[in-house]
């Protein structure tokens, strides 16, 4: 029997027969359907109705084969894979409610924003109704929970997104694309307000490497606590030819949704580098027709393991395509492509549908793109803001990690920031190279701090431009 990885969940009573489940760690063992056995413990399945009456606070949920997990994360170390698996899951909590008719607990992922609203409603309830009959209070609290989290059958809302809150959340992490965020957020918000496949819109993101195409969608999915899958279009081959096919995309979507088909069908899929498919003019091996079928919405039978199949419907999936289309500007008589360095991109012309078709995209594929977003190339100011102010700044995250691990305050001067920008420009990779540049510049410093003789010896580390050109150059202060 193959070993499997599961999420250990902490069960917390919220209200009668309404529980919050929060991941505490990933565990390795064997799944027996209703229970999961590790080397020293047995846990019951979180979606078992009997768990409601159990005093056990710990249970398990979401199971994946250890080999599937290592393959999915492209890492051979199962412990590292389990850590990443847990880190992804710990961004959410899960609401469980009893379904006595089907004798199980219905578990739904809950975003931090929804949880805050729910807890606020519960706190308000306990204050305003403390002198009322408990039965009335319980009934009202359950109504509040249903209002916050329900997917109304009348209006078919799958997620009721607070667009202002979401926009603020993304702007704390993404810089240089403010003018385009409203359009992308609006498209997604409208998608999740319907369960009608005919009303689902698709988007095409055009912008240079490192401008934030992938990261914007990833952050939105993080906020909504829904699965996000990024797939590189050039990996696809046409049906009947050796290579990867649409099933490969759907397998990745399935595993990114922790093997939950319903979650997978409601997730966000980003098919990147679509422009490289367009440049392939050999119609016999063109995978665009297969891709079109996926984008239009279709039910697929997907083999996810030997003789194990699932059925997945892409009709309600929010699907975006993206690409840089760098060669397109060269084919224009006038330069209306992406501007360079610090020149503004806000007023540049946009590519027409016919230009994209001439470039090599199928007319039917372009026709399925309800909105085309032309993202800006990031300026030096944008890159600086990412480093110094973004919630996902690689520099600020490294600073926090060094402070936590070594109790050392990491400082830098303006020359360090400017050198990172300069090297990023030379690599022509926008924000994509920032993380690598920061990490590589700190290798020698972190090695020094890891030495046992230096533990608790220093309180400050200073890095400069020279640290980037020669990472042995830094200053440690006691």
Write the layout of secondary structure elements.
Layout (H helix, E strand, L loop, with lengths): L3 E12 L2 E14 L3 E3 L4 E4 L12 E8 H7 L5 H12 L3 E7 L4 E7 L1 H17 L5 H16 L13 H9 L6 H14 L10 E5 L6 H12 L3 E5 L13 H11 L4 H5 L2 E5 L1 H5 L9 H9 L2 E7 L2 E6 L4 E6 L2 H5 L22 H7 L3 H6 E6 L5 H10 L4 H13 L2 E4 L1 H14 L6 H8 L1 H8 L9 E4 L1 H5 L5 E3 L1
Parallel strand pairs: 4-5, 8-13, 8-14, 9-10, 10-13, 15-16
Antiparallel strand pairs: 1-2, 1-5, 2-3, 2-6, 3-4, 6-7, 11-12, 16-17
Summarize the structure in short:
It is built from 20 helices and 17 strands. By secondary structure, it is an alpha/beta fold. It has a 5-stranded mixed beta barrel with strand order 1-2-3-4-5. A 5-stranded parallel beta sheet has the order 9-10-13-8-14, sandwiched between helices.
Structure description:
The protein has 478 residues and is of the alpha/beta class. The protein has 20 helices and 17 strands. The strands form four sheets. Strands 1-2-3-4-5 form a five-stranded mixed β-barrel. A five-stranded parallel beta sheet has the order 9-10-13-8-14, with helices on both faces. Strands 15-16-17 form a three-stranded mixed beta sheet. Helix 1 (66-72) crosses helix 2 (78-89), helix 3 runs antiparallel to helix 4 and helix 5 packs across helix 6 (178-191). The longest helix is centred in the N-terminal third of the chain and has 17 residues, at 112-128. The termini are far apart.
């Amino acid at each position: 029997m193959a070993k499997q990885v599961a999420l250990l969940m902490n069960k917390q009573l919220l209200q009668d027969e309404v529980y919050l489940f929060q991941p505490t760690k990933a565990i390795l063992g064997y799944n027996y359907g209703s229970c999961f056995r590790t080397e020293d413990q047995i846990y019951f399945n979180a979606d078992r109705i009997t768990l409601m009456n159990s005093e056990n606070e710990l249970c398990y949920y979401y199971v994946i084969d250890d080999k599937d997990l290592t393959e999915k994360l492209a890492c051979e170390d199962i412990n590292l894979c389990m850590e990443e698996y847990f880190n992804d899951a710990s961004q959410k909590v899960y609401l469980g409610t009893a379904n006595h008719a089907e004798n199980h607990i219905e578990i739904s992922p809950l975003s931090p924003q929804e949880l805050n609203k729910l807890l606020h409603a519960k706190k308000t309830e306990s204050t305003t109704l403390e002198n009322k009959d408990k039965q009335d209070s319980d009934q009202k609290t359950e109504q509040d929970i249903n209002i916050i989290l329900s997917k109304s059958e009348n209006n078919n809302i799958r997620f009721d997104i607070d667009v202002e809150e979401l926009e603020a959340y993304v702007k704390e992490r993404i810089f240089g694309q403010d003018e385009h965020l409203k359009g992308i957020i609006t498209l997604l918000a409208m998608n999740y307000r319907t369960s009608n496949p005919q009303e689902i819109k698709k988007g095409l993101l055009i912008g240079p490497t490192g401008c934030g195409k992938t990261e914007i969608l990833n952050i939105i999915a993080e906020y909504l606590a829904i699965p996000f899958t990024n797939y590189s279009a050039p990996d696809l081959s046409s049906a009947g030819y050796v290579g990867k096919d649409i099933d490969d995309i759907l397998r990745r979507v399935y595993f990114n949704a922790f093997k939950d088909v319903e979650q997978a069908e409601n997730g966000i899929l980003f098919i990147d580098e679509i422009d490289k498919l367009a440049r392939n003019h050999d119609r016999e091996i063109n995978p665009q027709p297969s891709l079109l079928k996926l984008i239009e919405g279709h039910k697929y039978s997907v083999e996810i393991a030997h003789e194990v199949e699932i059925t997945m419907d892409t009709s309600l999936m929010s699907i975006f395509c993206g690409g840089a289309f760098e060669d397109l500007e060269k084919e224009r008589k006038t330069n209306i492509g992406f501007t360079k360095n610090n020149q503004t991109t806000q007023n540049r012309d946009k590519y027409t549908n016919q230009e994209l078709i001439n470039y090599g995209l199928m007319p039917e594929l372009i026709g399925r793109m309800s909105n085309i977003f032309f993202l800006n190339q990031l300026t030096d100011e944008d890159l600086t803001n990412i480093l110094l102010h973004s919630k996902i700044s690689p520099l600020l995250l490294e600073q926090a990690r060094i402070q936590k691990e070594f109790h050392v305050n990491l400082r830098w001067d303006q020359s360090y920031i400017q050198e990172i920008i300069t090297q990023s420009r030379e690599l022509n990779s926008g924000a994509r190279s920032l993380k690598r540049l920061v990490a590589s510049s700190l290798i020698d410093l972190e090695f020094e701090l890891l030495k046992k003789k230096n533990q608790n010896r220093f309180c400050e580390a200073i890095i400069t431009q020279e640290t980037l050109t020669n990472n042995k150059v830094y200053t440690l202060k006691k």
